[in-house]
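Sample pair:
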Amino acid sequence: MKKILSLSIILTFAALFTGCFNPVFNDIRKEVKLNDASVVGSISHLARVSANGKEYLFAATGILCFSQLNATSENSDWYACEISNFSTVKYDAMNRVFSGEKIIQVAADSNNVYIMTEYYESKDDIELAGRKLYKTTIANALSKGSQTWEEIKVSGKSPKTIFCTNEEGGSQDAFITFTDKKTYNVNDLANDVGGEYYGVAAFNSTPVFHKTSAITTNGTILYKSSDSYGEIEYSTNGTDFNPTSLELKASVLSLAVCGNELIVGTSQGIKKVRLDASGVPTTVVHFSTNAESAISKVYEVKCLLSVDSSLSDTEGCIYAGVDFTGSGGTFKNICLWSYEPSRGNWNRE
């Protein structure tokens, strides 16, 4: 676990949560001392970029944080981007007024990093007033000084979500879906890609879109969540998808390939699926690490990223954005989690 060095973390929505866990999980959990998190808050989007022969990971948590990526060793320090265009969201509890903007999503392509923000207004209740989209070069985003980002405006359109391909070696394409239910490459806002999408994976250098963010590939096989509850589909050509007979018993929210295993982020914790020699998902298996006890069924895993998909879940670094799912849980665990081989366990990043 590394501390953010350039800016103190701003908690944009402060709240206190208490809960209880399965006693068995509690006992297992006590065996691993949990770090105080550096990257705090609900995280639904991660974006990986390449610069000067190195890879970096961006996480949107209300603010924007980044760190250098390492496939097998302990992570580098986390830094917070200091963006001069706006102040991060603040809440005046006395007057019940929000000010500033909250960075909720991040995406990247081979040249730029993109963020989506929300801003609020106070009427009878606190209400979402709108969303904005910004971009800057990768070099500017990775600078540790104050940065100016360019706002992207499209007449008559309101942004709904952004996402990117996140290939190993750095994301090559970023996309935006507007509230009119059309999706565009951020660099080609005149031509939509043919539908309303929330996720994408680059398969044989071609973007394959999905209605949810639960889609990933190891370069040979493409995996995505199914329309059927708790199911996963796979494809060897990027077009024709085959069902599996898995029983995950939870909604599939995110996916990451780790060697001959598929890590699954669900609405009820983190799970692992064994892949056969052909890469076909076969059965749900238990982790040999503390993953299931640390990220238990009282949490949902909104995003996953495996730094090197050729490495197993104990050989390579993995990242997971964790949030609450209903009642239970603790606020301290709503943050970025990671597995690092040198540490041998899952912990707060």
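The helical segments are 23-29, 138-142, 291-294.
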